[in-house]
Structures are given as C-alpha cells and as structure tokens.
C-alpha cells in the first residue's frame, strides 16, 4: 500500500483524500498527474519521518514537474527534509532554489532565517561574536522579508527583531 494511503493523522488523511480528488477531477496531463502523485507521496512519507522515501518521491516529482511555481514547493519540501536531517547547507541550497522560482514563499524565507539564526547561536557558543552578528543580521533580513509577505505570521521572529533592535 502506498504511503499516502497509510496515514493515521487526520490532516494527512484529509490532504490525501483531497489530493486524490484533485488528481481525478482536475484536467491535467498524465505527466502532471504523476508529478503531483509523487509530491503527495513525498509529503506523506515526510510526515511519517521517512525522509529517504520522501526525497525519492520529491526527486521524481522534480523530474516530471515543469511548472516553476509547483517546482518551488517541491524544492521547499526537499529543503525541509534536509533541515530535519541537520543538513543545513543542503537545505539552504533548496530554499534558495525554491525562492528563485517563487520569491513570495515566506516559509522558505523563514526557514532560511532560522538556519542563519542557528548558525549565529553556534558562533556565540564557539566564542565568535563577530561572526554571530553577521549570521544574526542575515537572519533578520530574511525574517523581515517573510514578515512583509505574511504579516500575521512569525510572531517570535518579530519579537526577536524588536528585542535585538533589528526591526527597522
């Protein structure tokens, strides 16, 4: 049974049902349907922590998908998997690729900021406050962009920007 049919989570089940309906009723070329099915299965595997399987599905979806907007979400999800695996440099590559195709993807900007902030925290722990400030400044820039696109989101980031004097 495909991963997309094994979900026990209500939201995952709902997504799977809606995705299957979309695949049946929305007129799409067979290649687009296959790409969407791989994307759906990748999301399902990812939600279950099956990251290797998720990546396989996402890579196959990327091979088939031609629409830049849709590709941006696949790339974003590949970035999420790499973030979950602690592979921050790889994650950043995929977030940047997603943003090249879809510059108004606030979640990619937010995750990029989170990685920059994390690297700033690491620099502090290593006794390098100058490098930390560079990372924190980069995080601030990405968060400002994300907040501009989604003003009601990223409240913790907004607070951090205000507290550190980087909001302006």
Please give the structural blueprint.
Elements: H1 10-25, H2 30-47, H3 51-64, H4 68-84, H5 88-101, H6 106-125, H7 129-149, H8 155-163
Give the end-to-end Cα distance, rounded to a whole number of Å. Answer: 52 Å
**Shape from CA axes?**
elongated
Summarize model confidence as the mean pLDDT. 89
Range of helix content:
over 70%
Derived structural class: mainly alpha
The total beta strand count reads: 0
| Cα-atom radius of gyration | 18 Å
Uncertain stretches:
1-7
How many helices in DSSP terms?
Answer: 8
- Write down the secondary-structure element order: HHHHHHHH
Notable traits:
168 residues, mainly alpha, 8 helices, disordered N terminus, PSI_Ycf3_assembly, Photosystem I assembly protein Ycf3
Task: Describe it.
TPR repeats lie at residues 35-68, 72-105, 120-153. This protein has helices at residues 10-25, 30-47, 51-64, 68-84, 88-101, 106-125, 129-149, 155-163. With 168 residues, the protein is mainly alpha-helical.
Brief overview:
Essential for the assembly of the photosystem I (PSI) complex. May act as a chaperone-like factor to guide the assembly of the PSI subunits. 77% of the residues lie in helices and 0% in strands. It has eight helices and no strands.
